Amino acid sequence: MSNSQPNFVEAAKKRRDFALIAKWIGAGAKVLDLGCGDGALLGYLRDTLEVRGYGVEKDDANWLASMQNNIDVIQMDLEAGLSGFDDKSFDVVILSQTLQAVQNTEGIIQEMLRVGREAIVTFPNFGYWPLRSQLIAGQMPVSENLPYQWYDTPNVHLCTIKDFDEFCEKHNIRVKERFVLTNGHPISFMPNLLGSLAMYRLQQSE
């Protein structure tokens, strides 16, 4: 790694979810990261696991940041689908904290499971108790994982852990593993109430 390149491993120490995602991905795996932002996750996986693959990003500034971070990134709109990728052409397809900002939720997750042998989806849990408290107080919730105000948010489909569990059951999607975190710490007791971030490892059921 050149001196001009960011140290993704060091930066990821602030992102507990990066390390947990890495546990679900084998060394040298072929990965597609949807809505990759500046490429930090893909850079971390590349530097720790020697993964191969691409990021997908629509936003001009994020796409440029990924390019500057030496990430192989394709500029395209996820809402248009993943028709440019063959079936099972990736070991893992990732959608990290982007689910709530997409319009065609069903279509994108189905495309992830078509293109990848497995899919990893993470999202802020709208059932987290401080968010519920803000709603009871009569305001739209704002949190670390949902930092936007109601008038400038890109989020269109907020959901709870219970919602996503039911979505997977309805669409015949197998949940291989699930982590729920709050402030980087795992939550096992009442996760839909006490967990702020949900992480799912998915596979299409036979």
Question: What is the secondary structure topology, with strand pairs?
Answer:
Layout: H1 8-11, H2 16-23, E1 30-34, H3 40-49, E2 52-57, H4 60-68, E3 73-75, E4 90-96, H5 105-115, E5 116-124, H6 129-136, H7 161-170, E6 173-182, E7 185-186, H8 191-194, E8 197-204
Parallel strand pairs: 1-2, 1-4, 2-3, 4-5
Antiparallel strand pairs: 5-8, 6-7, 6-8
Using brief descriptors, characterize the structure shown.
about 210 residues, alpha/beta, Rossmann fold, 8-stranded mixed sheet, 8 helices
Notes on the structure:
The protein has 206 residues and is an alpha/beta fold. The protein has 8 helices and 8 strands, in the order H-H-E-H-E-H-E-E-H-E-H-H-E-E-H-E. An 8-stranded mixed sheet has the order 3-2-1-4-5-8-6-7, with helices on both faces. Strand 4, helix 5 (105-115) and strand 5 form a beta-alpha-beta unit. The protein is globular, with a radius of gyration of 17 Å. The N and C termini lie far apart (42 Å).
What is the terminal-to-terminal distance?
42 Å
Per DSSP E runs of 2 or more residues, the count of β-strands stands at: 8
Task: Please identify the structural class as seen in this structure.
Answer: alpha/beta
- Named CATH topology: Rossmann fold
The CATH class label is Alpha Beta
CATH H-level superfamily title: Vaccinia Virus protein VP39
Largest sheet: 8 strands, mixed
Which strand order does the major sheet show? 3-2-1-4-5-8-6-7
Helix content: 25-40%
